[in-house]
Specification:
The protein has 12 helices and 11 strands. By secondary structure, the protein is of the alpha/beta class. The protein has 2 domains: about 5-135, Rossmann fold (3-Layer(aba) Sandwich); about 140-165 and about 195-255 and about 265-285, UDP-galactose 4-epimerase, domain 1. Helix 2 (about 35-40) links the parallel strand 2 and strand 3 (about 45-50). The protein is globular, with a radius of gyration of 18 Å. The relative contact order is 0.14. InterPro entries: Ergot_Alk_Oxidoreductase, NAD(P)-bd_dom_sf, NmrA-like.
Amino acid sequence: MTGTVVVTGAGGNVGGAVVRSLLGRGTAVRAAGTDPRRLARLHPEAAAVHLDLHDPATFGPAVAGAHALFLVRPPAIATVGPTLNALVDAAVAAGVAHVVFSSVTGADTNRVVPHHRVETHLRSSGAGWTILRPGFFAQNLADAYRTDIVGDSRILLPAGTGRAAFIDVRDLGDVAAAVLADPAAHRGAGYTLTGPQALDFQGVAAVLTRELGRPVRYEPTSAVRYVRHVHAQGRPRTQAVVQTVLHTGLRRGQAETVDPTLERLLGRPGRTLAQYVHDHRGLWAPAP
């Protein structure tokens, strides 16, 4: 594809990875978010633009003249109608030809998660679209799980013995860039994306233990206790509920299947969780 790609959430893990992968292909990128100055520092080769999903007045200027949009749902946003779906409508009205949405595994049938409503709206939007459905991110270890790992050397989750085929967002970024390089070949497709190996959280704790040189344990917990735990860490209750739903789904095997799609699209295997932890092990050093 020639033309500019607007990337939402460009200051976060997923959006940032997509920006870097697109720039690596020589694609013109407009990094969108609430703090353009920070985005300009993070991605000096991209054009930074102000986009606030709670302010519809920012939608039109952010997507004006763009050819494609990469859309990701911020964890704190559960009401997607006036936010993500409204942005899709603004993009279509501005002539954006293709939208790539980063959803989650199972969102096509799971009506509980907000991603389902975005997928449904996107399919009827009139734009070309591709939906990426990654499983659990390796980067969760540096985000949702980091406080517990650093402070208590534990992973507290309501996942039971369920396993997840963790995907590295660097690979998701590469897939998004590949799709946007030839959107016609991926129009109307929904891709389940996983890493090359499924691990339970005992296995995740073992990877961390080996890399960090200190014991890290997995502590299973109940859904109710986990909602309270996440909310007590300062996250909105709606975000805590969504995180809980996704993790309890692991008990039913919702994310344990290793899917070959990522390797097929990239022509190489995905990165393993052990590779991710090795590359970023300084993130979990205990606070002095």
